[in-house]
Structures are given as C-alpha cells and as structure tokens.
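can u pls check wat happens w/ iron/sulfur cluster
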Amino acid sequence: MEKKISAEAYAELQECVHCGFCLPNCPTYRLLGIEADSPRGRIRLMKAYADGEIGITEGLVEHLSLCLVCRNCETVCPSGVEFGLAMDATRQEIERNTKRSISERIARWLLLSFTFSSLARVRLALKLSKLPGANYAMKKLGLANFVKPMQSLPNQGEYLDRKKKTYRAEGNTRYKVAMLAGCIMSTALAEIDRATIRVLNKNGCDVILPTQQVCCGALHQHEGALDRTLELAKKNIKAFSKHDFDALVVNSAGCGATMKEYGKLLAKDPNWSEQAQEFSGKVRDLSEFLAEIPINDELGEVKITVTYQDPCHLAHGQRIEQQPRKILQMIPGLKLVEMKSPDQCCGAAGIYSMTHPDVAERILDTRMLEITETGASAIVASNPPCYIQYSTAKNKSMKVYHIAELLDMSYRNLSESSLS
Ligand code: SF4
Ligand code: SF4
C-alpha cells in the first residue's frame, strides 16, 4: 500500500523498536510527561498517519508541532532512527494537506515565503519592526510573537556590509573561505558576523561573501515547507559556485546542519545532485573549521567563567561537541564549567519560541536553573535562536556570547566589559 510520506522517511519509522531509550533525552517528554510528546510516541503517530490509519487530526498536528526537532533522540537511539528526516517529511505532508485560517496563511507566507527568502527582505522586515506602530500591525497579522525577541536584543550597530565581497587575511593568505552571512547573523546579530570575519582573517583566511546568497532554508525545512528549502538550496549553490574556496564557514549551527544536508535533499535531482554533494562537503561550522587548521594561538587573556550550551543542530545535527570546547579552552584566562546536560534544547528551536512561547519559556527556565548552578557568569551559545533565547531570559546578569565574540575579544586583547 502506498505510504503518505517518502519511502526514505517511512523506512526510518520502521527502524524504531520502541525501546524508549530516547525518552529521558527528549525535552518535551521531560517537561510534559506525555507519551505522545516523546520521540517514541511521535513515531507511532507518524507511522499511523503514513499508513492511513489516522488522518490529520488536531491531536496529530499538536503533538508533532510540539516537537522541537532538536534531534536529541537521534543521538541516543540504538537503532539509528533518523527522527529529523521522518519529522520533516511528515510535517511537509501535513502542511500540504491542512487548511489553515486566512490569518495563519498570511502569517506563514509573510514569514517563510516573503521575508526568509531574501536577505534584503529580512533587513527590510527588521527595519519595519522597529517603526512606531509596528507592534500593533504585527499583532493584527498574528505575528506579534515573531518580533518581540528581535526587539529585546541589544543594538548591534550597522548590518553587515553586503556590498563588500572579500575581507582579506591578516598577513599571508593560508586559506580562501566563503562565509554564509545569515539572515539574522548579518542583521540583528551583525557584530557576531563581523567578529567571525576578524577571527578568520587573523587565521590567515581571505573571507568571501557572495552577494547573491540567500537564506539557508532551515526554517522552511522544519516548518514543513521543504520545497522552499530546495529552491533556496539551489540559489545558494549557484551563488557560492561562482567562487573558488577551500571551505564554506557557517557561524550558525542550524544553518550549517541544513547546508550539510543539501546533498541528501537534492540526491534525486539529476541536475543538482552532484553539485549539491560537493557543496555540502565543503560546509564547516566555524569551530569545526578552526579545530581542523593550525589555529593562530596569539590569544590574549579573557578573564571569564563560561558554560557552553551545545546547540542541538551542532551536537545532534552535526555531531560536533568537542571542537568548540577545545577552542574555548585555548583562550587564556577563560574557565569553562560544564552544566549537567549541556546538550538539552534551550527551547528556541528555529521559530519554536515564537510559535510555542509558553512551552519554550518553561524549557528555558529549566535550562537557566542548571546554568545558574554552574556559577558561570556567561553562556556560550553559538546559534542565533539560542543566542536570542538566552538573551531574553529572566536572569539579566547572565551574559551571552557566541564563540566568535570570545575569540575576537581574545585576539584583540579586549576585556570582557569592553565587548558587552
Ligand atoms: S531510542 Fe530509537 S528505537 Fe528506541 S524508542 Fe527511541 S526512536 Fe525508537
Ligand atoms: S526531536 Fe527533540 S523534541 Fe522532538 S522528539 Fe526528538 S528529542 Fe523530542
């Protein structure tokens, strides 16, 4: 019998042996204690839907949409179930076959199709969100939750200059790297992009920023708009392929995870499969890249005690855990203290903190308790949604840094107070 999701995704559901090893690692199960909000329960629901045993019920949509797609369940699964693949495919199917209200449709179109399709439009949207009356207009459009976190961020100055195509290495050029500017990184968090470029320049890298690059498509992938992800992937492959580079460095864990999957996502497209695979093979998280090269160790002292939050799409999506810690420990004066479960999701999860603000806040509260116990004065969160999520936490004395900011501070011999 024909299944309602792709054969690859269905095969993942079949791999589950219902052992339950993943349950204690699932943030929504830990918080809500409901089987249908656990990986095993969601797998049962997805399979029942794929087999045609159940339709698109309110319960199905609710339990699946409550999933953070953090993929923590994948890391511990003895059967190797690729949960994220199955969830993305099922959400796509549900998205195609669900009738949403007009306001919901407008909100999704504005967010996924209009804004997060072009970096220029992200810039425009962020500027509009700061105008007087923006809150009222967003409320009317059902988008109030989407602008609140952005408005709470400290002003990071000018957006990244997108006309400048190359930032030259300090001293001799050792590597040519391309960089993903990022929708949020190059705008609301532009200082992190500038810090990333300075760190790469310090490490002998010429940094190329292709002007025609677009959003990576991660948001769309996890919101059931996989077709849009593929369109964006093709645009990025085209934009970056105009340049010659050794690696494509990404300072956002979620974007990096999706870009590493372009090869897999376009595997069946004969016009793109080869290029997509080559592209994905060059993608490196910033910490991954720096751990691979002989890093410039002329680092100045940064006296600070930090705790490191593993971004889900770095630890579980890309299996990168040791590299960021190794780099942080190279910074003289920096003390790294571990929290109990650093690889638990902070509740940000792309736009989850905006679509499910109550659950996201409760998850964040549990994270902050663990973090406070460490005695650290700052959190290192190298992914835009996590960075924004922790920046909006109630404990305002806790600072938040991206790993690029701390490295940049160290190379420039700046004290911690001069960066904040
Ligand atoms: S650990 Fe893997 S096999 Fe076991 S219930 Fe979870 S998803 Fe299924
Ligand atoms: S992806 Fe995360 S939230 Fe979703 S079922 Fe797996 S562990 Fe739970």
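The longest strand covers residues 175-179.
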